[in-house]
Please model this.
Amino acid sequence: MPKHDDLTKQSRTGRRQLYCSFQPPESVRQLLEQRCEVRFASGKGPIAHQIGDAEAAMVVVTDDLSAPVIIDLPASLRAIATYSVGYEHIDVAAATARGIAVLTTPDVLSPAVAENALFLLLGVARRATESIELVRSGRWSGWTPTQLIGFELRGKTLGILGMGRIGGEVARRASALGMTVCYHNRHPATAPNARAYRFEPDLYEFLGSLDVLLLAAPSTDETRGIINSDTLAQLKPGASLINIGRGDLVVDDAVISALQSRHLRGAGLDVFNNEPALDPRYLELPNVFALPHIGSSTIEARTSMAEILLDGLDAIDRGERPANQIG
Ligand code: DGY
Model:
């Protein structure tokens, strides 16, 4: 915690006092400092103590803002701005009950996440893990017509489970590569960029029609574990799985066993259960293309994510409700 004198000096500036729980890219740090008096995490003590008398806290998905933590937050705090589109780490009802607004970063990271989904799709189709390993190992003995034969995305059916704005961006790019896109949600998609694609209301029929299943759903009570041995069995043998949503949408044992038996041809995974300590069996499988949760990790997205949160905090200061406020 800063000393009392420091806080007094900060509040004299008349600018918003922002606590930031993470180290942002340098250009984003400058942006935050242009628009706020920022105090970055010292790495010591519970978040409630670190926030001190800040009016707003910028946090990330690895911060715990469950109800017991929110109860302890200081009275000065008016907003929690999460540097993510997902907000399963925040008990929004508890925050709302305390009059604390919760802001997220919708839309601005969708292109980055969708491009990463394409990276995963292409990585699975063209056997990226095995190709990279072969070249780097020095064991590559030269071109042959049979080495590392993959498949083309053109003409294949991509099914998006959890079609929203990110799914819509993925669908547009996959269509440009010649894929047919359909999706499964509880209800037909409402996002304008998602409505054009075929809605499949029956989960089992949806799964049975796919060459590639892409998970883009948030982690909720309904979606946790939705990809398990029962749902995987509905996929055609040789289908592939991509996960850009959250690790806990899948049951690891079931996915790993389907990959081992080649019922799943391959998996492209950007998110995992228990990150960063993912199940090590994934890393033994050559048909797994694994990335370390880098979906939104572009400088464009990181900059826009800070801007949308700062704009939202400005709106709250003006007494307005920003479009990226939830709860
Ligand atoms: C998000 O924005 O939710 C990303 O997954 C980063 O946490």
Observations:
- The domain at 17-108+298-326 is CATH 3.40.50.720 (Rossmann fold).
- Residues 61, 84-86, 109, 295-296 surround (2R)-2,3-dihydroxypropanoic acid (CB under 6 Å).
- The mean pLDDT is 95.
- DSSP finds twelve helices and 13 strands in the chain.
